[in-house]
Write a structure and sequence with these properties.
Layout: E1 3-12, E2 20-30, E3 35-39, H1 46-53, E4 61-66, E5 69-70, H2 78-84, E6 85-88, H3 101-111, H4 116-129, H5 134-137, H6 147-159, E7 165-169, H7 177-194, E8 197-201, H8 205-211, E9 214-219, E10 222-227, H9 229-233, H10 236-241, H11 248-258, H12 270-288
Parallel strand pairs: 3-8, 3-9, 6-7, 7-8
Antiparallel strand pairs: 1-2, 1-4, 4-5, 9-10
Helix pairs in contact: 3-4, 3-6, 4-6, 6-7
Length: 289
């Protein structure tokens, strides 16, 4: 399973006086089981790109091949495509509507035409996969849950369809710090256990650095750069020019480097930063002796 995007272009209100190019010339590949992070400031084209990846939008130019199928080709069954590609929009809990959690999570599998037994199996699996207790929560109203729990239930509804590609558009938006951390850990666990391709759009650079195998940077509808988190976040000036910052811990350690601390460049995790700072201080102490 892989994703291959070539020369993608989309124009909103084409032919009208208000015509605007949303994305243009975007090309990239994502391999089997990889985690892709997408970053860019508001209005850069991230959500437009995501909607092309599961066929909600058709490009004016370019192709998207997912699992060997060109989903931009005429006559391709978008129903079949959307069985393989799950898309979680921002604030997905606003789409909860059933009287119980179990019924809400079952909505997707039932629409796939699955039988009652398999649907129930998938519902239980998905609820537990997003870190909730099935027996405790299955008969509760989703509207009685906390914000973080609602978000998990909404994501479980997509996970229950067992997509080969899971796309998440700002899945932690609006959550308090604890719920943010819980949902982020849940996304990491779902990816680890399912082995699917996961695509995450986020304004949180620390989240992108922590989870991603590759990072794609978009600005004004164009691809700026793509690479590993370390490669992308080493380009401080390039990111700054498109209105993006480094992860907070990377900012801190780069400041320490500029002040003369001999530590590695582009540190992305708090643990790595703590280890390297401790080693530096220890070596400095020994040298004084």
């Amino acid at each position: 399973m892989s994703i291959q995007v070539k020369n993608l272009k989309h124009i909103y209100e084409k032919g009208m006086p208000t015509e605007s190019v949303a994305i243009e010339g975007i090309s990239f590949e994502v391999g089997d089981g990889e985690f892709l992070g997408i970053i860019g400031h508001t209005g850069s084209g991230k959500s437009t790109l995501l909607q092309h990846l599961n066929g909600l939008l058709k490009p004016d130019e370019g192709t998207i091949v997912i699992g060997g199928v060109d989903i931009t080709a005429p006559g391709v069954s978008m129903v079949d495509i959307r069985k393989r590609i799950g898309l979680v929009f921002q604030y997905p809990e606003y789409q909860l509507f059933e009287e119980t959690v179990a019924k809400d999570v079952a909505f997707g599998p039932k629409n796939l035409g699955l039988g009652e037994e398999e649907t129930e199996e998938r519902v239980k699996e998905a609820i537990e996969l997003v870190g909730l207790d099935y027996d405790d929560i299955k008969d509760r109203s989703p509207f009685e849950l906390s914000g973080g729990q609602k978000r998990r239930v909404a994501i479980a509804g997509v996970v229950a369809m067992r997509p080969e590609v899971l796309i998440l558009d700002e899945p932690t938006a609006g959550l308090d710090p604890k719920a943010h951390k819980d949902v982020l850990n849940m996304i990491e666990e779902v990816h680890r256990r399912t082995g699917n391709i996961t695509v995450l759009v986020s304004h949180n650079m620390a989240d992108i650095a922590k989870l991603s195998d590759k990072v794609l940077v978009i600005d004004s509808g164009h691809m700026v750069t793509m690479g590993t988190p370390k490669e992308v976040f080493s380009k401080r000036e390039e990111l700054s020019r498109v209105g993006l910052d480094l992860p907070p811990i990377t900012n801190l350690t780069e400041e320490l480097r500029q002040r003369g601390m001999d530590i590695e460049q582009t540190i992305l995790s708090v643990d790595d930063a703590a280890r390297q700072i401790a080693e530096y201080l220890k070596d400095k102490g020994h040298n004084k002796c």
